[in-house]
Amino acid sequence: MEEETKFSSSSSQEKPQELALSLPNNIEKKEKKKPLMTIEGYPIEGLSIAGLETCIIFPSLDLAFDIGRCPQRAVSQNFVFISHAHMDHIGGLPMYVATRGLNRMKPPTIIVPTCIRATVEQLFEVHRQLDGSELRHVLVGLDIGEEIAIRRDLKVKAFRTHHRIRSQGYVVYQVKEKLKQEYRGLSSNEIKSLKSSGVKITDTTSHPEIAFTGDTMSDFILDEGNSDVLKAKILVMEIIKHADKFQNKAILMIHFSARYTVEEIQEAMSKLEAPLAGRVYTLTEGF
């Protein structure tokens, strides 16, 4: 928590330059921005402290997973995916939307489990009544197994997780169009002619890039419908049970308890053995 700056009545006549000297460094001038964690080519930032807040940000994908307290860095993301309705994962939603409105940014798209969509809309309505804000946004309910395209080359699919309340995780897929085998020897003019006549000349392929579980028990790992979660290039989660099933290139561990120090977390991770050793990262911002 930032240290509170207090001024006594005797200091009210201080000269501006003298007053500036008494301010903490983080107020007097901006801190240098820390370099982002980069895993498998993806910059990642955010916070995840069990029971307090979780918000995992992928700036290059323009999205964040969950938004417990709305860190400033999350505001610039156009998409937020909510895994479940516990306060440390959803509490920052109104502030996120309000801050974007204050900065005249376009209304964000918020994806939530379909079962809580109506209640989340009620949450926004309460805040509208409280402060008169428009809180403009697009709210999408997504069921397990359903997909949403967020870019021409990106789609996100919801998958089943197991928590105390209704929950779901998300897999981000990279989508590519590949020329069909039978057309690969044709000239560009021939391909253009086929395309203009309505012939589908490409096959669509998708590859799981990022998987985010949110809070869950290990049961999701044994669900046959979640195979892509275990194949995604990066898996963001909080458990290591059934580690032999993880085919991911990298695993980002999140949601550590605040009772642990960074040193304790790092020490525990350093003791991991194969098949996890060497591909596990930890998010300890805020500890």
From TrEMBL:
Pfam families: Lactamase_B_2. It comes from the Eukaryota. Residues 1-24 are annotated as: Disordered. Signal peptide: none annotated. Residues 76-268 form the Metallo-beta-lactamase domain. This is Metallo-beta-lactamase domain-containing protein.
